[in-house]
Amino acid sequence: MQSKIYTMPNKKYKIAVIQLNLNDVAENNLKKCLSWVRDAASQGAEVISLPELYSSHYFCQSEDVDNFALAEPLYSTSFIAFSALAKELGVVIIVPFFEKRMAGIYHNSAYIIDTDGSEAGLYRKMHIPDDPHFYEKFYFTPGDLGFKTIPTQKGKIGTLICWDQWYPEAARLTALSGSEVLFYPTAIGWHPGEKEQYGENQYGAWMNVMKGHAVANGVYVAAANRIGLEQYLPDTAGIEFWGASFIAGPQGEILAQASHDKEEILIAEVDLDLQENVRQNWPFFRDRRIDAFGDITKRAID
Q: What are the residue boundaries of the CN hydrolase domain, all occurrences included (predicted)?
């Protein structure tokens, strides 16, 4: 099979994250997301990311086997629709979806679809949380594809998903493999009863850790969150997704920031000359003491 031929790298290209309110009807979410991707492309975006698990409400608020019916096999509905759109528009699209790999094995995954409609890569979420109303371990097998850079016709990108965003190791390994941008499709929000007491610190920590990934690795970071109160379970307060999607530059500077409660498209430019200049002046990769990092693979240093 002939290898795919990539064009010379672009020195500048525009990326976008789309922040949306999503519901429990897959067909509606698909139509909505196709329309918003088209809008982003019309505004000049060349690499476009949707939020985590775009095709449904955030069903992990409960442990319910009926929710496995929301999963789809590889290269079915989502891939077919977004592949056609990527080819039509000549853009790269990151499509996070609920993957049915086989009976009993499901993943929280993302397609990276290239400008010709082909699959540039597939990422399976590596870190799986289990918190109140974020019961993801019930549904998702941890990813087995590792942390990697996906070459596309627009640039070299890395895709991590939501809970991955708290792990500097994930960002570092993805950046070390050549990523210019780290995309984080996300579904994160407040428990309404905790928002007043803890909400500001929770949201601030989320922003700070990803901005830190940008600084420590000299990469662009783009987070695509959802918005809205999803209160689909009786006798529960639901989750208020806090939006605030953003794009940061390689010094952690905020290039674009969304609101907490509106559907929005954020667009920013990736400048590879700027990225190289930042890494030349802040040579964190040069000074890493890789000879002293062996213990990082241990669960604890006892």
A: 13-272
Residue 262 a catalytic site member? no
Catalytic residue among 162, 180, 211, 240: 162
Q: Are 166 and 223 in contact (CB under 8 A)?
A: no
Count other C-beta atoms under 10 Å from residue 245's C-beta. 29
Whether 60 is catalytic:
no
- What is the domain partition of the chain in residue ranges? 12-284
Instruction: Say which residue the tokens 């990527």 belong to.
Output: 86
Q: In this structure, how many other beta carbons lie within 10 angstroms of the beta carbon of residue 191?
A: 18
Length of the chain in terms of residues written: 302
Of 14, 32, 33, 52, which is the active-site residue?
52
DSSP states of 252-283 as a string? S-EEEE--SSS-EEEEEEEEHHHHHHHHHHS-
Q: In 103-218, where do the E strands start and end?
A: 105-113, 119-124, 150-151, 156-159, 181-185, 189-190
Highest CATH level, class, for 12-284:
alpha beta
* Residue 162 among the catalytic residues: yes
Q: In the predicted model, is pLDDT for residue 7 greater than 90?
A: no
CB 125 within 8 A of CB 94: no
Catalytic residue chosen out of the listed positions 32, 125, 154, 211: 125
